[in-house]
């Protein structure tokens, strides 16, 4: 599957989401629409922190090994 990341201006987001719904591309858009802006801001902040210092974070497989799950 191919994935794309796009940026939509805030004033065009609703139109874009309606278009995606109209072509049955997005089935559960209500989940995205109901996320409080406060929560979205927290996620954006965390993404920026990662972008500014990616070496401070571990890859999931490293974390999983450290958890020693099922071994």
Percent in strands: under 5%
State the share of residues found in helices, binned by percent. Answer: 40-55%
Give the total of beta strands.
0
Q: For the residues shown, what is the average pLDDT? A: 81
Class from helix and strand fractions: mainly alpha
Topology:
Blueprint: H1 13-22, H2 29-33, H3 37-52, H4 60-67
Written overview of the protein:
- The protein is an all-alpha fold.
- It has four helices and no strands.
- It has one domain.
- Helices cover 55% and strands 0% of the residues.
- The longest helix has 16 residues, at 37-52.
- The radius of gyration is 17 Å and the shape is elongated.
- The two termini are 32 Å apart.
Would you kindly provide a brief summary of this structure?
This protein is mainly α and about 70 residues long. It is built from four helices and no strands.
List keywords for this structure.
71 residues, 55% helix, mainly alpha
